[in-house]
Specification:
29% of the residues lie in helices and 28% in strands. A hairpin with a 2-residue loop joins strand 7 (87-92) and strand 8 (95-100). The protein is of the alpha+beta class and 309 residues long. The strands form three sheets. A seven-stranded mixed sheet has the order 1-10-9-5-6-7-8. The longest helix is centred in the middle third of the chain and has 18 residues, at 137-154.
Length: 309
């Protein structure tokens, strides 16, 4: 008999992280972007010490899982706030509360967009996913645009299609706090293919799959099933790929403040309610649903979210 909340949650192990820069010891450890992927030894054994291109595949069709993107604010000990530009979950006074997401406000200084790319390296030994973090606006836009184009071509499928993840030079416009702008050479991520567009289309497009199914009736059921699965929400059996060590919320001591904003936040903490139906929920249920669904949900609404009822 499965255990709700445990048996229905599975994740592939994270084999490691690949970085887009390294610390410059001559500048007191300040991060400096590199023109190549900074890889662990097992990846370097396949691609060399300074690869600018990696062969990747996505393990699922759901972009919300393979490339989640949030506004995040970190403190000294962990994550302080995580939002989508409209609503956010924040650690305030030692409690996790829902608030308006305002990345440009003075209270959110240091908040930035972070995309977490989860992918397979089929040419590197090991079973699991590799991960790259990026806060680059250009990289996030490039990856989203390429993924949408592939999905449009394939009818929603991105899983297990061989792709090239590349670092390319880009001239970015940097705006300073005083409003002045200047051009800076940066390196951004993009997706590419090792074929011509015509070859890629003939192999992976929905139309090509349907045509092959008509020519070979034995493939029809399999292709139809794949096309249906590509349009469905992500399986409830896989919720994440990381091991959550980078998602730990900052531990804070409760602080007593007399501000009107703090009193409103305290009231929300004392009376937690489901975002969808308004039913009052416990702090444990609220924290669990916030971590996995990004908002406070009661148990029935969590089931609806997972398409279980």
């Amino acid at each position: 008999m499965p255990i709700y909340g445990i048996s229905d949650f599975k994740r592939l192990p994270r084999l490691g992280k690949i970085k887009l820069g390294k610390k410059d010891e001559s500048r007191k450890g300040a991060p400096v972007q590199t023109r190549y992927f900074v890889c662990p030894e097992e990846v370097q054994a396949v691609y060399g010490p300074q690869p600018k291109e990696l062969d990747i595949m996505f393990p699922l069709n759901d972009i919300e899982i393979v490339f989640p993107q949030y506004m995040k604010l970190y403190g000294k000990t962990g994550l302080k706030c995580k939002g989508n530009g409209h609503t956010a979950m924040a650690m305030i006074g030692g409690n996790l509360v829902e608030k308006t997401c305002a990345p440009n406000s003075p209270d959110c200084k240091g908040c930035k967009p972070i995309g977490t790319l989860n992918f397979l390296l089929p040419k590197v030994p090991g079973f699991g996913v590799w991960q790259i973090w990026t806060s680059s606006w250009n990289s996030i836009v490039n990856l989203n645009s390429s993924i949408d184009m592939i999905k449009a071509m394939t009818g929603g499928k991105i899983a297990f299609i061989p792709l090239k993840l590349q670092l390319q030079e880009h001239s970015a416009t940097i705006t300073q706090e005083d409003g002045k702008q200047f051009q800076k050479k940066v390196f951004v991520m993009t997706l590419n293919i090792a074929q011509t567009m015509d070859q890629f289309y003939q192999e992976y497009s929905l139309e090509a799959n349907q045509r092959r199914a008509l020519q070979n009736p034995g493939l029809r059921n399999l292709i139809q099933a794949n096309n249906v699965l590509a349009g469905l929400p992500s399986p409830t059996t896989i919720q994440s790929f990381d091991d959550d060590d980078d998602e730990e919320w900052e531990v804070e001591e409760p602080q007593i403040e007399s501000s009107e904003e703090h009193l409103e936040q305290q009231e929300k903490v004392q009376k937690l309610a489901c975002y969808n139906c308004g039913v009052e929920i416990s702090k444990t249920v609220a924290e669990y649903s916030s971590k996995n669904y990004g908002r406070h949900l009661c148990m029935p609404c969590q089931k609806k979210q997972l398409n279980l009822i």
